[in-house]
């Protein structure tokens, strides 16, 4: 093999290694949850807290925000999601105060402000339950790509609904979709990765 050809091969190999390194740098952080950075849905919300005060994502700027849609009479999925959120906060240690957990009711007919407050604070003192009107709940769910429907059960009803949690970074950008089956440790690791990108000032 000629020296000229060898030099060309070495230069090409170096260029490929450099390109691979740049691609790795551009790929951003790796998450256990589904990375939905840049998604065109769920950009914001305007809901009421149990005191009747309007809330939006801007109120939580500087914190990561985990949002889950459900209903307080849910027998298993909703409490499991909120128990996991509480464990995630515990695993975050001294970073726990930088995560806001929000529970949005899909059942405003039964989930009154008082019921929401009692329900969410049972999982975490700073967990927040939010609601809107029945009509606007449907619009909100559509905006966030959340499926839900009433299922009659004798003289009452339960609800089928999407069990995904969403996570926003401290700048208010939607970043992660967390499957219901994902464990708390990997969710906490994802939150730590996000928070490291937004150091406290």
TrEMBL record:
Pfam family, one: SCO1-SenC
Name assigned to this protein: SCO family protein
Residue ranges of domain Thioredoxin in the record: 22-196
UniProt source species: Thauera sedimentorum
SUPFAM superfamilies found in the cross-reference section: Thioredoxin-like (SSF52833)
CDD domains for the chain: SCO
InterPro entries the record matches: SCO1/SenC, Thioredoxin-like_sf, Thioredoxin_domain
Entry similarity comment: Belongs to the SCO1/2 family.
Keyword terms: Copper
């Amino acid at each position: 093999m000629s020296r000229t050809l060898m030099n060309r091969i070495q230069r090409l190999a170096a260029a490929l290694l450099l390109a691979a390194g740049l691609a790795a740098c551009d790929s951003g952080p790796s998450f256990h949850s589904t990375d939905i950075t840049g998604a065109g849905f769920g950009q914001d919300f305007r809901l009421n807290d149990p005191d009747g005060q309007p809330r939006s994502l801007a109120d939580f700027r500087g914190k990561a925000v985990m949002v889950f849609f459900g209903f307080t009479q849910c027998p298993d999925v909703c409490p499991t999601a909120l128990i996991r959120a509480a464990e995630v906060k515990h695993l975050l240690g001294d970073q726990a105060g930088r995560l806001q957990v929000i529970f949005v009711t899909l059942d405003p007919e039964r989930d009154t402000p008082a019921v929401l407050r009692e329900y969410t604070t049972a999982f975490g003192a700073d967990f927040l339950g939010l609601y809107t009107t029945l009509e606007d709940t449907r619009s909100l769910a559509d905006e966030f790509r959340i499926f839900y429907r009433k299922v009659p059960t004798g003289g009452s009803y339960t609800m089928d609904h999407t069990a995904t949690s969403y996570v926003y970074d401290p700048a208010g950008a939607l970043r992660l979709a967390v499957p219901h089956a994902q464990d708390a440790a990997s969710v906490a690791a994802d939150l730590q990765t996000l928070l490291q990108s937004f150091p406290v000032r």
